[in-house]
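S1.2 Input.
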Amino acid sequence: MARWLADRSLTVLNGPLAHGIPTWVGFRDDREMSSIIDMFLTNASLLSPRLDIASDLSLGSDHRLLTLSFSFAQSSASESSSVTPDASLHPRRLWNLSRLGEPDPCQLYQDTFRSSSAPLLSQLKRLVQHPPSSRPPIDDLNASLNNIIYRSLDSSVGDRPPRPSHWKKYWTQQLQDAADYRNRCYRRWRRAFGIDKVYWWHQHQQANTSFRQAVLDAKRLSWQAFCKSLESDFTKAISKVKQLKRRHQSSASFSHPDGPSKAVEVMASHLASVFDGSLLPSTRPSPPPSPSSLGLPLGLHGSSPSGTSPSGPSSSSSYLFAPLTIHTYIGQLPTRKAPGTDHIKAEMLKPISTDLSHLLSWFFSLCCQWSYVPSLWRHAQVFPIFKKGDPSLPSNYRPISLTSVFRKLLELSLAPWLASVSPQLDLAQGGFRPRRSALDQALCLHELMQSYYRRSHRFPVVAFLDIKSAYDTVDRRVIWDALSRSGAGSSPCLPLLVHLFDDVSVSVLVSNHSSAPFSPVTGVLQGSVLSPHLYSVYINTLPSLLRQVAAPATHLVPSSGSADAGMVPVNSLLFADDVAVIGSAKSVKEMLKLCEDHSLSLGYRWNPLKCAVLNHPTSSSSSSGSTQLSLYGTSLPLVDKFVYLGMPFVKTGLSAASVLSLRSPGVLKLMSILNLIGVNRQGFSLLLCSRIYATFVRPKFEYGLAISKFTTAQVKEIERLQDRCLRMMVGGHATSSTSVIKHVTTLPSMHHRIDVLTTRFCLRARSLPRSCLLSLMVSSVPACRLTIHLQNNPLFLALPSPAPSSDTRLKTFFRQYRERQLTSLVTSTTQVLLRACRPALVVDPILYVPATRAERSLLVRWRLGWLPGKPEDCPCGRDRRSRRHFLECDLIPSFLWSDLPRCPPGSYPIDFALSSLPLGRSARCPPWWSSLLLMLWYIQRLCRPDRYYPIDSSPGASWYSRSARRSD
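S1.3 Output.
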């Protein structure tokens, strides 16, 4: 070992700091043995090192607790001149934002902000209405606004230091006292001699057992309280489950052997090389004019606007920054998102949105006047998100920008103006555009492939192309030039937009360490509100360029959505940076050459290794040689199946058979994660589990079902996938029935869900504007899947005429349709357990009436048929356990049967009683409730005689007591 340490220049700190002190003490063959097997190794010089080995702590382990404290040695002058300084820590400021949900702290926060911001509001009004000769200190004004918010939060809710890593929710002072007593007994035993050593060892063992039991009890009570709190607030439950799910999902984070300081250095160096503009061509559009050459201030001269002088700034562009509009945008901000460098989150702005919207209205107008925004709004902290591949390579991470929430509000305010002055986007572009979706684009690709086949009697070659670092290599000059040509050049908002994206700084944030900032030459920030639209403007010339070499069999659509317009071929589809080109092998080869030329002219690059070609003709060597498809001299991979926008495509188009195999692994993995965090029989209630499943798991395999054409066997496979998830939720065996689970929780079958999703998609397609590509395809394709197959599902055909116009009415129709199906099912089914349930489409009251966990478990297990379970011999010795036998079993008191409500002939008393429970969470407790629970307790004891079930002295007391309180 000494040679190994010497070869690696490592030093063992145990020797000089804790010489001879064992780190492991155990007993073998009635002898105490010790050794030094836990060691600290380092290759750095440390200042004031100290190593403590705790020998008097009872840890339940033979290993002792080691604690090393030290300071880093300062680098020498020569080293500091050649080595980049360590990245600085960037801690977040935290406040008790949960207290903003309380009336008094929230009111204090609003009052404090209102009084503190009044001088700033007056100053902003004066600067906008009477502009000075030079640019005002906008950065200082932003700092004043931030400090006002900070002080208001400090005085109302207070700041919150980060929780230590060892913090446990269930830990109490009683547990701490028990732990201290255990350690005290352990120390006395270590120091005792003779017979006293036996006594203190016995005391330590008892203390250790009591402490462990107390910890288990505290964990159980804390978990039950946690589950109960989630059941009372579904919104809180979804938010918490999402947080727990994210914590359990394995996602690599960028790291370096030399620590987070070196990690941010390496990642920043990589991103700087991506943003450095090395791919830019020599001939580029001219840069936009600088704001100083435009004669500042811009475009906001004038008196107060008509009718808005008290509340908004004056100008022709005041509609962009109207207080009411900004107030709406603040309400739309997502919560629980990471803040920018100013530590401001949406949760802080929403309680003060009324006052803040007026202040920001003047602030944004001031920024527009001077084409300048605060530097904090132009700084992005880039957090690397792992994509796939080797996690040690910085190129396998997506740089997501964390920017100020005020920047997001400014971008939201500029979005309507940007959409109005942008050049018309090509109809082939479907990404991040209103009234368009990824499923629309996938269905369009399927129809284009089918139309090509009908025209040429062969399926087209489809090349799926991937742009390397698409958002990060954008030449922003191309965007500004396109906007200037389309009419935005005279607007005062364009210089502001140019400044907002050109004058940015970027730093990398990893493990609370931040790199030195750098200025990117190219790119638009990933995570910015306007970046998707700006990228669409950047890439907008590609589809029209590819149309020059469209194959003769390419499908044609009206260029502007009207029948009188000229017809244009659709030989390419774009969804942001996801590109697909369609045509013959020859035309696709020509299109790839145009794509290559287009990338060289604009300054981006395709990634040939991540591209793919579907349906390439490889039957004859001569044809394959003449139509070899490549980019930059690199051949593109040939595939038989490709996933485009989340949908699997094969030779003929969309592949319904591949949808389930594509979704199943992810669905089962997610269900396993949720199962670990409480979506199981011992965790959350069945009702909450079903809602969590419907929120997180079911949408994962519902994606794409609306546009897929399934066979009956494939629908059954999808149904079996849902059944498997439900069995994981309740702990059922591999073949247990799930009909009752779906009935009592009102979860629909997947057959019904497919009909609902398809109907919604068809109704939405009817309302799309005629300029949408899907609308053009439906009107021009004679045998479109939307009209031939999707609109022929029974739910769509059952729609009234006219179809429901609102979502509420549509949901009512879906419910009525399902109720009719349920009535037919219950009356015709041979499933005894399903026929025994309440014949109505409502959540079974057994899932939400006041009851203890043990009582609700009895109710649910009876409904599911787990009681009585297998027909084995009853302890009474007269017959096997069965529903029929319990009616005459001597071990069940007969008076309990007479206490239950009288049931009609053919019904089982317990089933009828459960179906007679009143609906509604505020319903009063029936008089026979305790008898029903006691009856089920007796049945449980008969079914599991080998277990001990303590009897409740007052079964059903929780519902009785609540009813009594409400009657008082």
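S1.4 Remarks. Residues 75 and 83 are 9 Å apart (CA to CA).
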